[in-house]
## 1
Amino acid sequence: MAASKCTRLTGALSRQLLDSVDSVLFDCDGVIWRGDQAIPGAPDVINSLKKNGKRVFFVTNNSTKTRQMYAEKLGKLGFDASADEVFGTAYCSAVYLKNVCKLDGKVYLIGSNAMRQELEDVGIRPVGVGPDPISGVQKDWANVPLDNEVRAVLVGFDEHFSYMKLNRALQYLCNPDCQFVGTNTDTRLPLEGGKAVPGTGCLLRAVETAAQRQAEVVGKPSNFMFECVAGQFGLDPERCLMVGDRLDTDIMLGSNCGLKTLLTLTGVSTVAEAEANQKSECPHRQKMVPDYYIESIADILPALQA
Amino acid sequence: MACGGGRGCVALRGAQIRDLLDAKHNVLFDCDGVIWNGETAVTGAPEVVSLLKQRGKRVFFVTNNCTRPRENYVQKFSRLGFADVAEEEIFSSAYCSAAYLRDVARLRGKVYVIGCGGVMKELRDAGVPVAEEEDAEPGASIYTCPLDPDVKAVLVGYDENFTFMKLAKACCYLRNSECLFLATDPDPWHPLRGGRVTPGSGSLTAALETASSRKATVIGKPSCFMFDCIASQFGVDPAHSLMIGDRLETDVLFGSNCGLTTVLTLTGVSTLQEALAYRDSQEPQQKNCAPDYVMESVADFLQALED
């Protein structure tokens, strides 16, 4: 099995691979765009795939945009895409809380307005979004007023993260019946404009440490991201291709869900890392070996246009 | 070893207490949950401390709580009825972090601090330069943090004014592998009155470790540094020292790590049940969290001291 993996995707193989799948799932950052710039050739690839009768989906751990906001960004960059093809963690967390946690009540949200929007759209009322500076003295903090309709704490990316928010989350999570969900564990935001910024994973670790509890994580590599798409569109895993730039999220998700996997080298992970995983004896690392790799997804274009 | 124990959670009573005290010249006390709870002294604690000193024992206070400078602790001791506790006897994680930067790291440069007033004061008193926190300019974003080129260390501790911006800045400094990474203490949460909790330094350190993919050097218990600090100033011999605490994963583990005899007192965070679970564990690291002795309260020493 290992021998047939981590193969460079060339012209003939591309054609073969594309014929073997009906749906292609793309990660976004480092795969189809970097920050606010499309990867050259990426829009043509996505648009050609659709012309070739393939379904295309976008699966991202980024929680700062709603599906609608992603659709607008995709449109601006020249991709032919609609909101219902986008699965970001703001949307997927809302779906998770609604359908899996069966949340009946409010959620204390450490996250963005986009997350608040997606939650409200599925009928869940979030509390806590926005700046929350400290006030009072230490003995007041354990007695912050709690909303007794809150049944879950959800942590996503929040640039207003503060000690007070961490404290409120802790107070809610002292109740073992309060559910605890995180959007993703990525430690850094993708390089928007070149600077690496701490990611949601850091905020989640702070809350998990204070509360001494582990969150249920919605984002890749959790299967839920694929199940969310598959459930809405009736996908057959064996006829799906996952295209990503990260071995520990995108490729791991693909392996766990039985999808074909393609690593593109325009983002985080390298072929050397993939090959090292392949050589290792560790079953966990074996799941982070792609079936194929390619320099950039633009390299698929010739096979599509043939 | 003069006194058994052997991490066996032995209930300390009667003549055993006297024997233990006879064998130990130095007694180290944790504070929260051991000698006081919030603003209330544990009944009998002030008398115990006083009598120990009268018997010629040396007494030290070793606390992970970095929110106060030592001079504030002196005032608190006095307020709660402990007579004559001197500043030199108090070892807080804030004081020891400053001492580490000055004496061990020999820092030549500034330290970027995520911490509270207590930490800042100890750094200033130790003569360790602190990078100034500029007020957030309008339009300042997490993507553009102005960095001070003189920063050679990052220190993270309890900070009620913790923000994402501070996390991002600290992370930028830590990208330089030469920049030291220190944490005052690993406590994930701190107990407040009535069984309530508040997030601790450990939770902020976890965020920064995750962001930087680096592990902090932890000054506070259970790391030995605070004991090294005491030993370097007072020539304290572990074999003749007793550590009394209420938190198994910090105080007792600290005692084990430093080669001290350990006593768990049940007036604070940890329970007898938790102690026994550690005692019966197969893993060495877990076993080190089991105390040699257990007592209900430090007041139990009174019977041995009052004859």
Note: The longest strand of chain A covers residues 55-60.
## 2
Amino acid sequence: MFRNQYDTDVTTWSPAGRLFQVEYAMEAVKQGSAAIGLRSKTHVVLACVNKANSELSSHQKKIFKVDDHIGVAIAGLTADGRVLSRYMRSECINHSFTYESPLPVGRLVVQLADKAQVCTQRSWKRPFGVGLLVGGLDESGAHLYYNCPSGNYFEYQAFAIGSRSQAAKTYLERRFENFVDSSREDLIRDALIATRETLQGEKLRSSICTVAVLGVGEPFQILDQETVQQLIDKFELVGEEETPAAEPDAAAADEGGAAEQGGGTEPGPAAEPAPMDI
Amino acid sequence: MTKQQANWSPYDNNGGSCVAVAGADYCVVAADTRMSSGYNILTRDYSKICKLADKCVMASSGFQADVKALQKLLAARHLIYQHQHNKQMSCPAMAQLLSNTLYYKRFFPYYSFNVLGGLDSEGKGCVFTYDAVGSYEKVGYSSQGSGSTLIMPFLDNQLKSPSPLLLPALDAVTPLSESEAVDLVKTVFASATERDIYTGDKLEIVILNAEGIRREYMELRKD
């Protein structure tokens, strides 16, 4: 991305037909800490990496409940994300009030996209600097969408945004065909592994990640730290890289065991030295 | 030339009575389930009680269309509160919200006569009683609706606490046990049903305590 004479205004086209301000806004998304989403036919799992600025401060909230059946994970300018979450919540409440039924997630993302588009066509506004992974339910099951600052939105089986998200995407691309029929547990496991991929060597523990689940018959909830740590331990994710192979999920347990060579089968992260330190 | 009177009213009175009684660690909210219009019964099985929050229940008599609109509004506002504060609204907070919501329509009121019952943040029972435009007061017990003129004097006789004007302020909640309070409410409705034509069919009782919310029903005279 180079500084040039067509990037001052969002309402200025470049000769190549690009809106640089919009593209710069998408850069802001890439700079934020990672957020990951995956879905099966009945569940959506959202996970994100929480990076606090310093040890003294708390981390920013990146996953928001929008309604019982919709949740959103954001990456980029979290302040913009908060404002958009508030808008989404308000739309859901108004729809429920008028129609006594939950707002289908597919409609919500269109409204969100239109809202983002407005900011790409007003000289006195700037695009939202946040990417949103919207997970939700409608009559046909679970869906995952990605909303861009550009006003585009796409539906995904699984996706990752933010810094070092490419590592997560690579993992997800290998495994996504299995996700449709995944169980809730397997989906969470894959989300945690994908999150671990973005950490590039740092130890995965519940204090630096947040996981949220929603599904048919299960309202959106952010899993508490203890539960997440138990899941990390159970899936023995503290260990080395998972053996790379497109193995079906049935062999997942074996995979986890094979990868954790020195760890044994009991979860005991406190007792062992973190193998990643080798 | 006499002044022209309106031949259409935006309001109707669907009748019914509501009662709430606060105890040391519980709250009982009750209402009959008869919905009427004029001298007709519209249905014998309509709930006037709405759970607004985990520890806050409202019973309203009057014009049920306005009551429904009011309940929906409060439920939506409660959702917003939960999103913003990450917790449920307390009963006193909901009480203030209801008052403000009613006064907002001071010049085209909700024809809704409400009693709000629940547990405060210490787990003690609390009851708030309202008029149609939001004037409210925290009390130990209250009744509203078509049977309230029959019910209130009886509750005064059984539950009346020392005047709230006395100093130091004395506890408004009744020393009765939960089962005694429920029995009292059943007695009260059975009596009101005898003489108030708009009260009857079935009694719905909601009891809030530390364990949660419980519902009980009792048949009333259907004439």
Note: Chain A has seven helices and ten strands.
## 3
Amino acid sequence: MFLIRKPCQIHSNQLCAPDNTMEKEGICKFKQLFSYLGCFLRKFMFSILSVGPIPDHIAFIMDGNRRFAKKRHLLEGDGHKAGYESLISILNYCYQLGVKYITVYAFSIENFKRQPEEVQLLMDLMVEKIEDLLRNGSIVDKYGMRLYFVGNLGLLSSTVRAAAEKAMQATAHNSRAVLLICVAYTSSDEMVHAVNQAIRKNEFDSVEEEHIEKVPMIKINDIKRHMYMSVAPDPDIVIRSSGETRLSNFLLWQTAYSPLYSPTALWPEISIWHLIWVVLDFQRNYAYLQKKRKQP
Amino acid sequence: MVATDSIRKSSSRMAQTPSFALSILWLLIHLVISIFFIVLGIVDTVEDYLISSGFLKRYDVINMGKLRYLAIVVDSEDAMQINKVLKLLQWLTDIGVKHVCLYDSEGVLKKSKEIILEKLSYAKLYEEGDEKSGLDSKTMILEFTSQFDGKEALARAANLLFKRHLKLSLGENQEEKIFTEAQMTEALKAVGSGGPEPDLLLVYGPARCHLGFPAWRLRYTEIVHMGSLDSMKYGPLLKAIYKFTLVRQNYGK
């Protein structure tokens, strides 16, 4: 599916002010032209990519915000803010390309071990950005995006949990695109939670000890049904920025046939070219991965 | 009539032309990428020669202390080439790897377990507790896993916990029992799928995915793609292990 809805446009923040000097106006016009060409080139590249299979679901491990802040001599919080801008940029590219589901690893249960100030900063940033996303005209509106917050939400403070639940309710009617934000998440916690739920839901009348062996067994699909991530298909691709080659307790159950890509760019430096390269490589291996997924 | 038909034909040809042109461009891009990977393969071959002949000195000394446990994932079709698997294990012994877990989803390697152990006289089968015991310099511990030890094992462990839950609900203590990660780890050991977590996982296949390797044991494992088993080389194997020894993890902190 290729979303070629709108032609490239000059955005209002790029309009040249009437009282600009000749030189400033020249620079402004050049920037507008550059932006228009960039948009055209992007749409052209996406139409070429769309000749082959486009992944339905991409998962991102957004690694490298702190290293980015250190590299650019910024405050740590600014690294995370730059990371958020990068996320919005990538979401735009992915949804324009026709990817329907995007999952991001925003905050692991292990991240609670960080300095309390940093954890608080991240939680505050999350609440602020959730409010931004729910405003009119945001990316959520633009793509008809449904938001899911995936993880052990009970570990979050009441403020963050309330903001997450409000966002999920406000976007529940959307269905064109889906964004799953993994927060207070680890794959091992997800698997244990799913097993606990499967045990609880396995219906039986009061059983006597000698009949325990005859009670119906829990199957793989029972566990799968209770995973936090059961609202989306398994990812087609996992991308981890910063060149690290591990999954760090992210979607371990769901990624048997999801190739892992590790571009060396830090998360705020991730660009459209990384995405294009990953999709091209995914297309090269598509037939093999489909064959593997269909095997019993 | 003729004019209308010809206009209609031209319009449909024009509508098809952009997608025909895009298809050609798509094929061209993929051709260029394939050539790129062929060139990369040639570079790998040259590097393999340089490493194997000892020209690249930095790979001579590797700190094997960091690599306590290595896993190898092989595509099940490739896994039928037992001689390749044996060669790979021989290379790993030469490098100094002591503990290897072999995985393929369909269990082809599991079925060939006896042949492999017979051919490698210094190798022995993994038993629980092996990771704690000291080994002499020549022994290699081998573990054979498949999807039976992956999602299927988690389901078996879940059933073990389920039965425990039923027994608890019969007892005097009627509190709802929520099982923890530690209890899940124990349950996995009890059903025979409780091996240690590999430090490094090497994937021999067309794509870099773990093909269903036991999820419970993959949390912080470095995953490296080695290409297909057919084109396996000693140089890239040594390089991958060397690079692993340089990695530093924060574990979320």
Note: The beta strands of chain B are 70-74, 99-103, 123-125, 140-145, 200-204, 222-227.
